Amino acid sequence: MNTKQLAILVAVGLALGGAGLYVRNQQSAGYQQSSSQIGGAVLPGFDASALSGLRITQGTNQLNILKSGNDWTVKERGGYPANFGSIQEFVRKLVDLKATQPVQIGPSRLPVLELIAPDKGPGVLVELLGADGKTTRSLLLGKKHTKGGGQEDPGMGGMGGAWPIGRYIMVDNKIETVALVNEPLANAEPKPDQWLEKEWFKVEQPVSVTITHPEATNSFSLTRTNEFSEWTLVGAKPEDKVDTAKTGIFSSLLSSPSFDDVILDAQPATLGLDHPVQAKIRTSSGWTYTIKIGKAQEGDRYPVQFVTEAQLLTQRNPAKDEKKEEAEKFNKDFAEKLKKQQEKLAAEQSRGRWTYLVSKWSIDSILKKRSELMVDPKKDAAADNAEGLSAPVGFPNLGQ
Distances from the Cα of 143 to the Cαs of 134, 184, 222, in angstroms? Predict the structure, then answer.
């Protein structure tokens, strides 16, 4: 190779190298390193005690959880009480958010990280509201970061076996704050039913249950002498064979009931609450509950209303031979118990203003008909047949 040919090759090499450098610079134009520091707090200086509300927006859906005095409520459910424990846990996660990985960012990368505002893209916007109800800080939540995985599995919501361990976020709509954080914030969704306080009422030690159906022949009443005895069917006929296993379930009737959601602007005629199945329950301590159940809705769920009544004993009757020390202890115990009962009654009567959407399994006992308390005729016949087969068979007398 002569000198002229070598010079041409060098010139071509330099030209190609320059072109590659130019293309790379063009591709990375507008990208920069996030200012977030690994291990650094995402919301430094955030004062959770000054928080007056949370607003979560995704697409066209929005959730507002607002503080009213010492209580938290869900605006989209007409101000129904919110679960303070869920709010407290969520805010704690926000305070503890840490950047775990530096991110190369630029406007063209935001869609890849799903950091696009809800009105234009898939991002979830979390706004923290101050005392004036205005947004003080905001977090745009983007793509979740997962660990593990394998083949695509739609049932897992992504890669088979993968689980979220973090999420890409942007603070206060500032691109330089984009970071991958150490928490996926999975419950940051505008789903009002998931933020409701689910404690509404609780029946303790029922001793009388009357179920009234629109069809009178399906109605029945059960009683028992105390919370430990078996139930008796009121007005039982001689031919009635009551299955004690079926009536036994009424001993724990509505001892820990649950509901799925609150129904706003409930229309009795539309929901079937104008002709409901009704239960009246009396407890050993004198509490009375009246529950109304409407017609089945989508998802095998029912509209439910309830009323709580109680005549609380406000004065203790001391024994004649009580000593002073005993009286002081008994009075203290009585006062503490009375306070708990008064709080329970006030809370349940407050919750009784609402109409609830309840899954069938939670109220299935109330929906039973009188005939469903009886021994199954087929099982009864089978039991009689089995008893006949098991009877001893006589042997012939063979003599001495």
Answer: 27, 9, 56
Q: What is the pLDDT of residues 293-335, one digit of tens each?
A: 999 999 999 999 999 999 998 888 888 888 888 888 989 999 9
β-bridge pairing 232-233 and 220-223? antiparallel
For residues 28-47, average pLDDT:
70
Distance CA 81, CA 46 (A): 25
Whether 54 contacts 127, CB under 8 Å: yes
Q: CB 357: neighbour CB atoms within 10 A? A: 20
What is the C-alpha to C-alpha distance for residues 200 and 203, in angstroms, rounded to an integer?
Answer: 11
- No. of H helices and E strands in the chain? 7, 21
Mean pLDDT of the chain: 86
Parallel, antiparallel or unpaired: strands 206-212 and 220-223: antiparallel
Q: What is the C-alpha to C-alpha distance for residues 353 and 276, in angstroms, rounded to an integer?
A: 17
Copy the structure tokens of residue 191.
């789903």
Residue in 283, 284, 288, 281 with CA at minimum distance from that of residue 363: 281
Residue 123 tokens read as 């991002």
301 has which bridge partners?
A: 297, 359
Rounded CA separation 159/186 (Å):
17
Please name which of 76, 35, 372, 46 lies closest in space to residue 195, comparing C-alpha atoms: 76
| pLDDT at residue 61 greater than cutoff 60 | yes
pTM for this predicted structure: 0.80
Q: Report d(CA 241, CA 176) in Å as an integer.
A: 76
Cβ burial, residue 112 (10 Å; 0-12/13-18/19+): exposed
- Based on the number of CB atoms within 10 Å of its own CB, is 90 exposed (0-12), middle (13-18) or buried (19 or more)? middle
Provide φ and ψ at 291, rounded to 5°: -120, 130
* pLDDT digits 0-9 by tens, 113-154: 999 999 999 999 999 999 888 999 999 999 999 887 544 433
Element (H, E) at 161: none
DSSP letter at 226 equals S
Q: Which of 123, 124, 162 is nearest to 145 (CA)?
A: 162
Radius of gyration of the chain (CA): 34
d(CA 80, CA 262): 8
Take residue 289 and report the two structure tokens written for it.
């509950």
Domain ranges of the chain: 32-195, 206-316+328-376
